[in-house]
Amino acid sequence: MVSNISRVLLVEDNPAHAKLMMRTLSEFGQSLDIDHVTDGEAALAYLFHTGKYEHKSQLPHLVLLDLRIPKYDGLTVLTRIKQDPKLKQIPVVILTTSDADSDVRDATDRFANSYLVKPIEYIQFVKLMRSIGAYWTELNHTPST
To answer: What topology is assigned to 7-135 in CATH?
Structure first.
């Protein structure tokens, strides 16, 4: 393994998408720990160790973030991550159904590390998730934590 990505925070409110994403990413080994939250408020609580996550001591090595989530949208979560000195180096991959140029631009302006559009077709979705898993766990180099 080239990368030291072992902990992923998945921020996804669609249960079917989340299940498929977690199942596909689990193909990359038992050592890949995937935490799943369903809204922006929970994502921020997880990242800032507040509320039910106040005793969580470790941060994720990667955040997979949907844009269209309840409470705080994905752009708000992305902004908070990239403005915080302790969090800003965590790679954030936007994984959403929107291919709107304005959404891509807004995410890029907020320093998203990647912007990917979820395919509608199941097989294409699985292929995308396998590509994400391979890239972040096998190919990408990240600094030591």
So the answer is: Rossmann fold (3.40.50)
